Amino acid sequence: MTEFRDKKNDIKSTAEYIHNKANITPKEKSWLDDSRRSAILDYALLKGVTIKQMIVSSGRQKESVIGHVKHLETEHGLVVSEKDGIYTLVTESSKQFDAVQLEHIDKAIKDFTTKGAPYGLSSSKFYNVKINDTLYSTKPIMGYTNYYESGIEPHNYFSVGANTPCFNAFERLGLEIITKHAFLG
Asked: Given a cut of 50, is residue 159 above it in pLDDT?
């Protein structure tokens, strides 16, 4: 088992790999410093894979494959999602944005004001967040905000809407989510 990992760095680098997964060529060693059979699993989990496919591609037993998935979650701080039998590394979890603070939002507003929305994070059609009596589009602000908290470059790796980690973070910080009138009909 890997010990004393920099989980924050593992999460950041995994988010970058997920964002660029179409252009990734698997290597002998993964970005998480896993070798051979473990690296095979790391790369497969970027695109989505079944337990059976992981067993066949890595040559491991089922218990070993499941153990590696748990290892990624506990030792690396990553989130492995399972839907319809397909396991995938994801960046979004219920704990995403938990460490975001108002100081990160202040920096995000400065970036948004000077640079505009990051590529791929256009203005929301349905929601704004009210900060200091000014309305901002939720996704670009959280993209920049999370960059200042986690170091993950802002791009389209999270959802917005009721009960999402993004909105939960805004609400935890006492910021109001405003539904745009066009959305109401």
From this structure: yes
